[in-house]
Amino acid sequence: xxxxxxxxxxxxxxxxxxxxxxxxxxxxxxxxxxxxxxxxxxxxxxxxxxxxxxxxxxxxxxxxxxxxxxxxxxxxxxxxxxxxxxxxxxxxxxxxxxxxxxxxxxxxxxxxxxxxxxxxxxxxxxxxxxxxxxxxxxxxxxxxxxxxxxxxxxxxxxxxxxxxxxxxxxxxxxxxxxxxxxxxxxxxxxxxxxxxxxxxxxxxxxxxxxxxxxxxxxxxxxxxxxxxxxxxxxxxxxxxxxxxxxxxxxxxxxxxxxxxxxxxxxxxxxxxxxxxxxxxxxxxxxxxxxxxxxxxxxxxxxxxxxxxxxxxxxxxxxxxxxxxxxxxxxxxxxxxxxxxxxxxxxxxxxxxxxxxxxxxxxxxxxxxxxxxxxxxxxxxxxxxxxxxxxxxxxxxxxxxxxxxxx
Length: 406
Ligand code: HEM
Fold this sequence. Notes:
Blueprint: H1 3-12, H2 21-30, E1 33-35, E2 40-43, H3 46-54, E3 58-59, H4 78-83, H5 94-105, H6 108-112, H7 114-132, E4 134-136, H8 137-142, H9 145-154, H10 161-172, H11 181-207, H12 213-219, E5 221-222, E6 225-226, H13 229-260, H14 262-270, H15 275-285, E7 295-297, E8 301-303, E9 306-308, E10 313-316, H16 318-321, H17 356-373, E11 378-379, E12 400-402
Parallel strand pairs: 2-10
Antiparallel strand pairs: 1-2, 3-7, 4-12, 5-6, 7-10, 8-9, 11-12
Helix pairs in contact: 1-2, 5-12, 7-9, 7-17, 9-13, 10-11, 10-13, 11-13, 13-15, 13-17, 15-17
Bound molecules: protoporphyrin IX containing FE.
């Protein structure tokens, strides 16, 4: 095994380091596009990762050759069959068609309508934290927000939050091509329960339309076209699956980074107009999605002096690309007023995160209100990072704070 393979292994396989960023930097400096011993290409520079996100030569493939469908377990796997109809796993032109239909329902106006709901929900949670003088931001605040918001938006009853999170978590495990049989079986159970539940909601909306996102999706039409049954179910599942975990980690990271750095927090307190750039800076430094969905190389492609062969896999390493010194001056420094190119935390190109506006709204209202209300809050200890979602995702297991005399 080469030295670079050892570096890749050390952040892709357990035991994971608390801080993977110095390892990413070593790989990026030595080989911004590297074919590792595990057979995957890793795009770790800003230029390489952007090219992988944006080039039509990398995707999921189509028909029976698509990355998800060519898994030999596809015919028996409810999880893989659900994934096959989700936006991240479809290439243009099918992807373009599906995304256009979804954008008829998931509009900026529908997102903005969540602001008041969010503020009320956040304030109630902050009241309980205040009554206790502190607590765990993850379990007492961040965990509750994204699931409540997406359910409110869809019009899904609040009593199944825990089930939805569990099913979505199970399903996410099937995304990686090397998923074990055991994890896939667990994902299949989650996907079957998820689909049965979502199908019931969809049937209700067909019978009794309401003023919610689910009804808008059922009714979405463009050029006489609409979403078919599996597309609808998979779309609702992807909103829940993609929208909850990442956003909760983003909220936690915004609070942690500002509480850890009093100087930057004071800059924000003196000039609240910096809030959007401050939270964007956290998104750059601590991306909830560290390793994006693997892409298939659809045809032999030259990139940064290497030839990627048709059929190979390539992964954009978002956590590495966002700290590339060729894109950002002093990339490891937290600067709430940083100006720079767009970070890659919400991807780039055709698969740019559909929920970007909602994620930013949730972070701005939740972390924004927390920091305003508790200006003297302090971190009690360095927050532990969850290992069970690595290497693809990154988020805190807990974030214990003392609210001081706030
Ligand atoms: C901070 C929170 C979030 C982060 C970091 C995030 C990150 C991402 C990334 C990196 C991708 C591209 C995946 C790839 O192609 O490799 C993506 C796609 C997507 N995200 Fe998000 N996301 C967040 C929140 C949300 C929310 C709140 C929703 C919806 C409710 C959402 C829905 C989606 C969907 C549907 C896609 C697929 C888009 C496509 O393939 O065309 N995400 N997200």
